[in-house]
Structure formats: C-alpha cells, structure tokens
Amino acid sequence: MKLISTTVLLAHWTIVVALSLRIIARRLPVPLSLAWLAVVFAVPFVGALAYLTLGGLQLGGDRLSRLAAAQRAAEPAQCAVLDGPNVGAPPPGTAASLLHRQARRAFDAPALRHNRLELLDDWPAVFAQWLDGIEGATENCRLAFYIWHEGGRADEIAAALERARARGVRCRVLLDAYGSGDLLRGRRVRALRAAGVEVVGALPPSLLLRADLRYHRKILVLDDRVAYTGSQNLADPRFFKQSAGVGQWVDAVLRIEGPAVSQLAAMFEMDWAMEAGTSFAAPRSWTEAISPSGDGALVQVIPSGPGEPPDALRALFLTALYSARHRLTLTTPYFVPDDAILTALTSIAVAGVVVTLILPARVDSRLVRYASAANFDELLSAGVRIALFQDGLLHTKSLVVDDAVAAFGSVNVDARSLRLNFEDSIIVYGAEFAAQLGALQRAYLARSVMLDGRQWRRRPPARRFLESAVRLLGPLL
C-alpha cells in the first residue's frame, strides 16, 4: 500500500513539474499561466488532463499542414488584391491610420474601398434576405456558422439550399462540430447531403485537437457578389434556447456588396480547404479584375484564430480602445475582460472619454455572468457607463470609436474569442457607417437600464465573494 501511495505521489509531482515547465516556457499571458498552474497544482491528475486537452493551441499536424498549403496557394491571388485599384487607407496621421496599419501587418488584411453596406437589425429581415439570396443564386452558396439550430426559418434555409442545388448551384456549408453537433448528427444533414449539398463539421473532437477550439464565424456568401456577416447564427430566435431563461437572442447582420466580399469568400475557401481536406480554390471575385465602382465604404476584413499570430486580435482590440479620444461604445454578450482590457477601458474613461458598455442583463452562462459582474465596481469607479439590456440576450458584437471607426462581427470580449476561436471581424473606416452602427447602439441603450454605482455596491457580501472567486477563472472561460 505504501509503495502504491509513493508511486502515485511521484507520478503526480513528475507531471506537475513537467507541465509547469511547459506552461512557463510558453510565455502565455501571466494571468492565464497562473490560472493553469493553479489548476495543475490543485487538482491531481485531473488538472493535468484539463491542461493537456484545453491548455494548448494545437490544431493537429494534418490540419496545420492543410492550412499552410492553403495559405501558400492563396498568395498569388492575395498579392493581386493587394496591388489592385480598390486598396485604400484612412488619412495618414490619424488614429484610424494606426489601427489600419496594425491590422494590415498582423493579418495581411488590406482595406478595400467602394463597398456598399447595409446594417440589418431585424432577424425576420435577415432571414428573408438570406432566403431570397439563396433562391436567386446561380453559381455558388457558401455558408459558415457556429450554430445551425433546427426549427422555424432555419428549416426554410435548408429547403432553399436543396432547391438551389437542384438548379446546379454548388452549395457548401461549414458548421462548428460542437455548436451544430445536434444538426450534424441528425436527419437534416443527411437529407442535405442526399440532395448534393456539401456539409462539413469543423474542428470535430480528436485526441490531436484542443478540445475547446471553436469555429465561431458567421458568413454567408452568394455568387461572390453579396456577403453577410455579424452575430446571427443560423437559428430562429423563436425556437433557439428558449429554456435558458434569457429571452430571445438579439442580433445584427451586415450585408456587403463590393470588393470586401472577395475577402470573406477567400476566408471561407481557406477554412474549407483546412477542414474538408481539399485544395484551396481562389474565389472568382479574387481572380477577376474588379474596377472601382464609385463611392462606398472603406472596409477591412480581419480573419482571426489559431492559425494567425498569437494575441494579434487582442492587441488590435487594445489599440482600438486606446485610440478613443471622445466616445467609445461597445456591445457584447460575453464580457470577461483580461487585466489589459480592463485597464484600457478604465484609463480612457478617467482621461475623459465617454465609455459606454451595453451588456445583456441575462446571459446563458452563469460563470460568465459572475465573472463579468466582478469587473463592474472598478469600471463604475472610473466613470464607465454600464447599461444592461432588458429585452432578451443582446448578442450583437459592435464597437464604435469617436463616431469615425466601427468594428462589427463575431468576436466577444473574452479570452475565448480573442485568443482561441476562429472569428471574423469587419472594421469600417468613416463616419457614415459609424453613425448607422451608433444609431443601433443607441436603440439598444433605450431598451436598457443604466447600472447605478451606489446601488450596485450594496449587493450582498456573499455575491461579491462569488463574483471574485469566479473572476479567477476568467482567463479560462
């Protein structure tokens, strides 16, 4: 018995020392490193298993090889885009110019001019446009979503894809294997595949793949001419997560026409090559010469995920926060900022920037709810305004800086979105779209209750302790 105890103890400490050296050597953000060290030390064997399955950024050798091959195949067409007539930039010497240069260098993402944008904040209108677009497609339909949930208008999308395929339109659907797991295992996908629609589950469970990596993008591209992106999953809000007690999910979607469509199409093709194991095929709109089409928005499409430079998206987000001089308004459903982001928000607020956070009053994750609330005291003390949206789970992810720069897409303000997930973001430079997105944010604000600092600080001590305890898990959420 003593021999067994000694063997187990030696095995535990051997694993702890080995993993501790690995965690330290990886030079992760300090809070994340400390969180993992605490887990490994405090929970024998289970903590080590948790780190091995959740602590790395591993995509697996085969997936990394396919991604690298797709990136090499994309280079000639991407170079043609970078040398094309639609490449633009914000005025030099401005805060927007600095943000643009950082995004261009970190993600090799050009800003493209002459885009026509339409902001859609009504989910029936979104589904109506999606359906009309699929019905009118003549060449291809590309769909990439984190969640496809059956029921309501989502089922109409499936039927429209089957009809499109019957007309000879190539239809491909890329879904996160976890977020859309029920659908991928069900009859709906079998029927789609039988009709000739290509459906692939992204990041399926594997011993060679980090268990909590997610394909979180939401993209629909039709005939290389029109693209949609934003926070809306392929889920009818009347049927999605009705038992969670948070009300209907509230989303917004951006419709794009113009050169930026090619970037979203190429993002899809890169992902498809990585997950389906096919060769990268540049979208037609990438390989054709696209001449300027007149006035329009300057748009930068940002792909982020494990295949991009580590922490590049987080660094870009911090630059956007610190660029604010007058006003900054942010909406996000999951707000679990790290220390750097929290410092940025409080610092610019103390400096006199009007910082407004619009968050849902109720979210579908209890841990996120407590971890988020743990930061409110510090934010309120610095002068940050916190508005709690009352009419459902506000799921729109948006940022407007000084009524001049707007960011929109699938990214939440948490470690998962900023470091782990495959995400897509749209940065729009110019006052016109910033005004549209700002108007939507003000509409959300009208349906929110502003958090009162004095009243908030009177919450029970037990609640304060629980928030502080869960906040320690923030880097892992």
Topology of helices and strands:
Elements: H1 2-25, H2 30-42, H3 46-54, H4 61-82, E1 87-88, H5 95-107, E2 111-120, H6 123-136, E3 140-145, H7 153-166, E4 170-176, H8 181-184, H9 187-194, E5 198-202, E6 219-222, E7 226-230, E8 249-250, E9 253-257, H10 260-276, H11 284-287, E10 297-304, H12 312-322, E11 327-331, H13 339-350, E12 354-360, H14 366-373, H15 376-382, E13 385-389, E14 393-394, E15 397-401, E16 405-409, H16 415-420, E17 423-429, H17 431-446, E18 448-450, H18 453-456, H19 461-471
Parallel strand pairs: 3-4, 4-5, 8-14, 11-12, 12-13
Antiparallel strand pairs: 1-2, 2-9, 2-10, 3-6, 6-7, 7-9, 10-17, 11-15, 13-18, 15-16, 16-17
Summarize the structure in words.
- The protein folds into three domains: 2-54; 61-91 and 114-296, Endonuclease, Chain A (2-Layer Sandwich); 312-476, Endonuclease, Chain A, CATH 3.30.870.
- With 477 residues, it is of the alpha+beta class.
- It has 19 helices and 18 strands.
- It has helices spanning 2-25, 30-42, 46-54, 61-82, 95-107, 123-136, 153-166, 181-184, 187-194, 260-276, 284-287, 312-322, 339-350, 366-373, 376-382, 415-420, 431-446, 453-456, 461-471, and strands spanning 87-88, 111-120, 140-145, 170-176, 198-202, 219-222, 226-230, 249-250, 253-257, 297-304, 327-331, 354-360, 385-389, 393-394, 397-401, 405-409, 423-429, 448-450.
